[in-house]
Amino acid sequence: MRKFFQEIKADLKFKTAGPGQKLSEPSRAPREKPKAEVAPKPRQAPTDEAQRAAAAALARLELKPKGKAPSASQEAIKSQVRKELMAEAAASEKGLSMEEKQQEEEGAAAPSVSGVYFICPLTGAIVRKDQKEKQLREAIQAYFSVDPVAASIMEIHTFNKDREKVRVCVETMAKYLDNIYLHPEEEKYQKIKLQNKVFQERISCLEGTHKFFQAVGFETKTLPVPGQETTEEFYVLKEEVLSRLEELKERKEQLLSSEPVRAQLHRQLALFQPSPAAARFELPHDFFNLTAEELRREQRLRTEAVEKASMLRTRAMREKDEQREMRKYNYTLLRVRFPDGYILQGTFYARESVSVLYNFVREALRDDWLPFELLGPGGLKLTDENLAFNECGLVPSALLSLAWDAAVMADVEAAAAEEQRSPLRPELLARAQTLS
Question: DSSP character for 243?
């Protein structure tokens, strides 16, 4: 029945009206093919009356009882997810993120930043994220020529990732030095048997420890074992070190108080001229915290998410999923738009606090005492500066707005208007870029 009315609606035509003539009533086109071959007239839209009649007929058909329409197939959804995950896995094997793969295939826009960069605290060199540990190792190794004790302490604290093992290690090493300092006349404290169980389990297995003992004045010697015909290796303190016991004590304190050497995140501060593209971000894969193992885990979680879509979830369950989603990002790219349209951009850790962003903005101001507020997406004021960016939903990127404190800024703005000067530092304004 539906098909019949649709055929009627499709076959309705108008007769073309000449100058001064009225449109003729709609008529059925002849179903038989004309004998003479003539060019077919262009099909014109049916009259309003014909359309109303056809629509009424179709509406009556719609009112008739129908069988239950099939719902979207869960299997089809799962199949689509599997396809996406397989594509992600293939891209991962090639060392590419899905974003990069898409950019290769479609020629997507250039990233907002070229990557995540770090500053080596020892050399000042700026390197990409995947090169920072190599740079640190090279810098610490070079520092041995300057201060071998300090360099070995850096190695111990920086390259041994188990912080509890490091704590036990340095406390045991400090005890060896303390015994020498407190009992310089006791020869037994000036020797350390390398095969001693405590030394092997707590010290020898960690990177940098042997270099430390050698740097503070121990040397390796093979000595006979009392009461036995065998020999063993010992660290033995050089005799001249006993005349510098205060220095040995300082080394012990340095060992206990030192912290890991960390490369500093490079903010990549940039200032852009006013642009309607301020809210558009293209992030490189460096901003996403997905190792090969995490990618497999993400695949599993996304598959489970398909099944959860049809389930009722509590608020706690939703919040847990949101927290897990936020942990996918190590970094965030933030932009702050000033009232005059200029845009300040910087790179941050996703778990840094909002107070860091306030300080970042103040450092860009000509007068850092000027009071202001930062507004997140939707105009929400960021009043709690202790919250982390990922807790505020400001990951992996966000555009914020700066608003001056109205109670204080009326006079300041009037003075600035007279002087025609921007609140931003002149050196920043001089290198303002165009946001592509």
Answer: G
Measured distance CA(201)–CA(216) in Å, rounded = 21
| CA–CA distance, 29 with 203 (Å, rounded to integer) | 98
Q: Are strands 331-337 and 397-404 parallel, antiparallel or unpaired?
A: parallel
Alpha helices in 327-353 (DSSP H): none
Question: Do residues 204 and 167 touch, judged by C-beta distance below 8 A?
Answer: no
Q: Phi and psi dihedrals of 267, rounded to 5?
A: -65, -25
Q: How far apart are CA 398 and CA 354, in angstroms?
A: 13
Q: Is 74 left (phi over 0), alpha (psi -120 to 50) or beta?
A: alpha
* Tokens at 223, concatenated: 């000595």
Which amino acid does the sequence have at 403? A
Chain centroid offset of residue 14 CA = 62
**85: helix, strand or coil:** helix
Q: How far apart are the first and last CA of the chain?
A: 57
Q: How far is the C-alpha of 82 from the C-alpha of 102, rounded, in Å? A: 18
Give the burial string for 289-312 (b: 16+ CB within 10 Å, else e).
ebeeeebeebbeeeeeeeeeeeee
Q: CA 287, CA 329: separation in Å to the nearest integer? A: 6
- Residue 17: its pLDDT value, please? 44
Left (φ > 0), alpha (ψ -120 to 50) or beta: where does 38 sit? beta
Could you tell me the two tokens for 54?
């056809």
| Stretch (H or E) spanning 210 | helix 209-216
**Whole-number pLDDT of residue 285:** 82
Helix %, strand %, coil % for the chain, to 5?
A: 50, 15, 35
Does residue 400 contact residue 374 with C-beta atoms inside 8 Å?
yes
Does a cis peptide bond (omega within 30 degrees of 0) precede residue 426? no
Distance of alpha carbon 281 from alpha carbon 109, whole angstroms: 9
pLDDT at 315: 59
Secondary structure letter of residue 394 according to DSSP: -
**Which amino acid is located at 206 in the chain?**
L
Mean pLDDT per 10-residue section of the chain, whose length is 436 residues:
49 44 45 48 54 51 44 52 52 45 49 92 94 95 96 97 96 96 94 94 96 97 86 95 94 96 96 94 81 55 57 57 64 95 96 96 93 92 93 93 81 62 92 91
Angle between helices 148-159 and 245-257 (to 10 degrees): 30
Report pLDDT for 68: 43
